[in-house]
Amino acid sequence: QLACLQHVVAENTIVNMPTGTGKTLVAVLTIDHFRSTGKAIFLVPTRPLVNQQAEYVRKNCTKPIAVTELQGAKMDHLSAGEWQDLVNANDVLVGTAEVFR
């Protein structure tokens, strides 16, 4: 995981690891590393994982962090201004790729 983190913070990286080997931990450590310079979008493959991963991020970042879960039909009807408000109010946006289309 630490070797993976070193690679991730050095350049754009897609992390492909088996289930249960620490991908989410690598993501949280990466978020911690870059949080002073930007925002994070955390993509998950299924809706049930949205809440689970958002909670993991909240519990495992080293400092309090603003995380929001993006899911459901209401996301289809957000205006550009409402999207911008979500981005401004949060450090991490967690959702499926469908939400960010």
Automatic annotation (TrEMBL):
<dbReference type="GO" id="GO:0003676">
    <property type="term" value="F:nucleic acid binding"/>
</dbReference>
<feature type="domain" description="Helicase ATP-binding">
    <location>
        <begin position="4"/>
        <end position="101"/>
    </location>
</feature>
<dbReference type="GO" id="GO:0005524">
    <property type="term" value="F:ATP binding"/>
</dbReference>
<dbReference type="InterPro" id="IPR014001">
    <property type="entry name" value="Helicase_ATP-bd"/>
</dbReference>
<dbReference type="GO" id="GO:0005737">
    <property type="term" value="C:cytoplasm"/>
</dbReference>
<dbReference type="InterPro" id="IPR027417">
    <property type="entry name" value="P-loop_NTPase"/>
</dbReference>
<protein>
    <recommendedName>
        <fullName>Helicase ATP-binding domain-containing protein</fullName>
    </recommendedName>
</protein>
<dbReference type="InterPro" id="IPR011545">
    <property type="entry name" value="DEAD/DEAH_box_helicase_dom"/>
</dbReference>
<dbReference type="Pfam" id="PF00270">
    <property type="entry name" value="DEAD"/>
</dbReference>
<dbReference type="InterPro" id="IPR051363">
    <property type="entry name" value="RLR_Helicase"/>
</dbReference>
